[in-house]
Amino acid sequence: MEKEGYKLFNELTANALHSAMKENRHVKEMSPITDSLSSASRLRYEMLQTIEKMDEVLCRFEKNFLQQNNHVIWSADYEDVIESLQDIIHQHHIQSYTALDSIDSRLMKELGVGFTFQKHKLNPSSNGDLLLIEVDRMVAETGSLLLLNKDANYIQKLNSKSINVCFVSIDRLLNGLKGVALMVDTLRDISPTPSQSMAHRYMLFGGSPNCETYLFIVDNERSALLKNKQLRAIFACLDCDRCQQACPIDQLIGSEPYDNVFTGPRARVMLPHLELMHGYNHIPYVCTMCGACEEACPMQLPLRQMMIAIKRDLAAQKKVDAPIADALGRYRKYVMDRSKMNRPTWLRQQLINHMVSPQLKENRLLPSLAPDTFNSLMKKK
Question: With CB atoms 3.0 to 4.6 Å apart as the test, which of 20, 217, 230, 294 could cross-link to 309 if both were Cys?
Fold first, then answer.
C-alpha cells in the first residue's frame, strides 16, 4: 500500500508539473515580451513573493514532506548540522558514503560535511551506506525536492539506498509547481542544451518507501539577511555566476581573496551578514559600482542598490575596517567642501590621487574627473 501511495504521488506530481509547464509556455507565447528574460521576470516575482511569506511556506513544505516517510532536521548553523549528522552516523552504523553531488559543493563545504566524515573515518564509495545530496529547491505544494540537471540514473540511486541525507538552505524555496516550471524555463533560456531533453534536466523527489530520507534545512545566519528588505532579494539568485564573469574586479582578483564558498558580487552582499559582520567587512568596498553585474544578471537583481544598503549597514554599526573608514572620512570631507570641488580639474585630480593609497594605485587606474565643475557649467547656462 505504501509503494502504491508513493507511485500515486509521483504520477500526480508529474501530471501537475506537465500542466504547469504547458501553462507557462502558453503565457510566454501570448506575452508581448518575447526575449529570454520573460520567464526570469515572472520567476523573480514568484520567488520574492515566496520570501515574503517564508515561514508559512516552509511549514507547508514540512507538513507535505513528512507524509512520505521522511525526516526534517532544522539546523540553526553548521554546528547543529555536524551534531545531527554524527547522530545519524552512529544510529545507522554508517561505514562509508556515496556523494551524488560533490562533497565540496557550495553548501556542503559551507557546513563542513567533508570534515565531519573525515573525522569519523568514513570512506567514499560508489556503493556507500549513506547517500549525500545537495538539494536545489524545496517545493512546498508537493512536499518534494527539486534536483536540477539530473537523469534517470540519479533517481535510481536515490531509491536504492537505505539512508539518504539531503542538505538545503532555508532560502532555497518555491511555493508551487508554477515556480518549478518557471525556473526550468529560465535555466533553459540561460543555458540552452538542445541535445538534452527536459526529462534529463530536472526531477522532483518526494521520498521513497525503500529508504529513510533526512533533510537538513539550514539557516546559518541567512535569517539576518531576510530581516533586511533591501537585501533579501539576493535569495532570488540562480547561482548562474554571470555577475562574477562580468565583474571587472573579479576578473582582476579571482576568487582566492574571498577565502570562502561565496565569491563575486553575490558574496559582497551576503558575506558580511553570513559571517556575523566580522572578517568580511571590507568585501562590499571592493565594488566599483560600474553596474556590469546588474546588466549580466538574468534575474535583474538590484545589486548596486544592495551594495549601497550593506555599506550603510556597516557604517551605521561602526563595523567598517579602520583604513576604509579613514579613507571614506577624508573623501567625504573633501567632496562636501564646495570650494574644493570647484577648483581646476588637474588640481582636484591631484588631491584625490593623494587620498588613494599607493598599493591601490599599483593595481588599477583611477577614473578621470569630469572636465567641468558645477560652477563652470552654471556659468555656461
Answer: 230
